[in-house]
Structures are given as C-alpha cells and as structure tokens.
Fold this sequence. Notes:
- By secondary structure, the protein is α+β, with helices and mostly antiparallel strands.
- The chain contains eight helices and twelve strands.
- The strands form five sheets. Strands 3-7-8 form a three-stranded parallel sheet. Strands 4-5-6 form a three-stranded antiparallel sheet. It has a two-stranded antiparallel sheet with strand order 1-2.
- Helix 5 packs across helix 6.
- The N and C termini lie far apart (51 Å).
- 14% of the residues are buried.
Amino acid sequence: KNKTKWQMIFERENNHIEYSSIKKYNYLSEYNHLIDSKMLVVKFFYNRDLKEIKDFRIVNDFFTDYIVFNNAYNTHLTHFLDFYYKHNKFKKEALKFLQEFDPNIEDFSVEAKENKDGETIFEAYTTHNGKKYPVNIESSGTQKLIFIYLFIYLALDLGNVIIIDELDCQLHPLILRKLVQMFHDKTINKNNAQLIFSSHNIIVLDKNQLRRDEIWFVEKDNKGYTDIFSLAEFKTDKKHVRSDVDYGKHYLAGRFGAIPYFNNKEV
Length: 267
C-alpha cells in the first residue's frame, strides 16, 4: 500500500485461496473453482475482464517488464562485448567486480575491429603483469563472471529481477556465496534488485544467507514428475523447521526430499 503499511490482497496455501475482507477483493472467491493447482492466481485474474482489479495487472506487468532471464551460453558474445565497448562506466564497474574474485586481473578491455567482410567485431582482453591476453584463455569460471555481470549490473542498476539457471556451474562455491551476498548488501543493491537462481551446491543452504521462504526445492519422483516446494512448508513437531538448524546437513540426510534416485540404494 505504501512504504510503511501493507494490505493483504490474497493468500494461498496449496489449493486454499483466501482473499482480503475488502469488498473489491473478497468477491473474487467466486472464481476459486476455476483456478486449478497448476494455475497462478495473479495470472488468472490478469486474463479476466475485471477492470476494477488493477493490482493483478501491476504485479504481472512487473514480472513481464522487469525480469532479466539469463543463460550465459544462449546469448551471442557480440551483444555482451558491444555493451562493454560502448559503456565506459560499465567497463570500470566490471573490472572492479572481476578483481573481487581475481585480484591478478589488472585491467579488462574491449576492442572493436573490422573483419574481412567489413563487419564490426569485438575482442575482449584481460591484463596480467602489464600484458594483454585474449579473454578466451581465461578459466571458464572467469569467462562466466564476465558474461553474467552484464545482467547483474543491469539488475542492480535498474532494480530488476534477474533469473539465472545453474548459477553455480563453473563457479567456485565461495564465489557463488559472494554473488548471493551482493543482493543482500544494501550498499550494493540500493534499488532492491532480486536474484532468482537454480543451483546444485548446498553452500547456499545457509541460514545466514537465505530465509526459509527463500529456499525452494525441485524434486523429480521415480515416475519422472517434478514438484517444487519451499523449505518454509516443512514442519517438525507441528512447528516450522527452526532457523538455527543446518539446512545443508538436513538436506543431504534426505529430510527435505529433492535428492536423486539411485538404482543402487546405497550411496
């Protein structure tokens, strides 16, 4: 509603949907029988011709307009380097970012050249001990950091939501932790950007890193069906999982599910 007061519109737990007592929301319960378990409430009302219900459209448009989807391997390298080349401020920020993880990188530069067909191409270099090297000789982890930082920078600068699949791939666990911490650091994340990512690394299952409602598990059963559920949904002795337990240890012990199935039961 504003910066200091919030108004509940609806709450959903599994298939139970409860609406605000305010009249313009309360009557929406009449539509519950049309909302199945696989359907989002926000998306359902966004597609209805209910002009007086603007909130659902605002929320839907936020996710449509302000989410940055990223897979560092499905975007052409030229698009990255073109942006680096044209935005000098960004290049400086990128160098600062890279040096957080590899202080041996003295400089990062992008040069524009013309190929034999008259097309502009870009080549990236890192500098070590005063000598420039093509970025493609850097480790795959360093190259990934260069690629994803474009999206991270834009998300932090604009206050967007960034979605990265398998963020931990090719990155050291401590680098993964550092990236997550960036989005929790108010001195870095001044515009309330959000990071949504998938990972197979349990280092992020840390009570000091993420709240229970920020941790979600994806589980494939022995028939191949996939389900997603939050750590906040788990209860012990009729209470939610305590925030002081070792999430990673409990996960590996199978207490939260979402672990692989093996033909041989002993691992």
